[in-house]
TrEMBL record:
Belongs to the flagella basal body rod proteins family. It is found in: Bacterial flagellum basal body. InterPro entries: Flag_bb_rod_N, Flagellar_basal_body_rod_CS, FlgB. Structural component of flagellum, the bacterial motility apparatus. Part of the rod structure of flagellar basal body. Its main location: other. The gene is flgB. The keyword Chloroplast does not apply. Pfam families: Flg_bb_rod. This is Flagellar basal body rod protein FlgB.
């Protein structure tokens, strides 16, 4: 019986990749906090995870190499964030406090996803090789 990594890890692999992408977006927001005209962006994690689940179940697939790839992409889940603060006149929509909080929370969630995947891999190694 073959081991299916999709069954073993579920959406945790995709979730980790999405959290990595969100880290990049939040870091860009923080880095551009003083850039005139910069618009803060973020990832709609729920939509991205739903699309990852659709890709994993194989509801959309490319039946011929000459067909366009129609699978959902994370590019469509990246949105501009609505500004919570009043415009300071430079057109920048980054709220540095909100970005830092979101970055910290995302980092903790990313770390917990990695710990979960590590425990799953350890369990698979034990089952396959009888190693401790």
């Amino acid at each position: 019986m073959a081991i299916s990594f999709n069954n073993a890890f579920g959406l945790h692999e995709q979730g980790t990749l999405l959290r990595e992408r969100r880290t990049e977006l939040l870091a860009n927001n923080i880095a551009n906090a003083d850039t005139p005209g910069y618009k803060a962006r973020d990832l709609d994690f729920h939509t991205a995870l739903t699309n990852a689940q659709a890709r994993q179940t194989g509801s959309l697939h490319q039946s011929d190499v000459n067909h366009f790839d129609i699978s959902p992409s994370t590019r469509h889940e990246v949105l501009f964030r609505n500004a919570d603060q009043t415009d300071t006149g430079d057109g920048n929509s980054v709220d540095i406090h909100r970005e830092r909080n979101a970055f910290s929370q995302n980092a903790m969630e990313y770390q917990s996803s990695l710990q979960f995947l590590n425990s799953k891999i350890s369990g698979l190694k034990k089952a396959l090789g009888g190693q401790s």
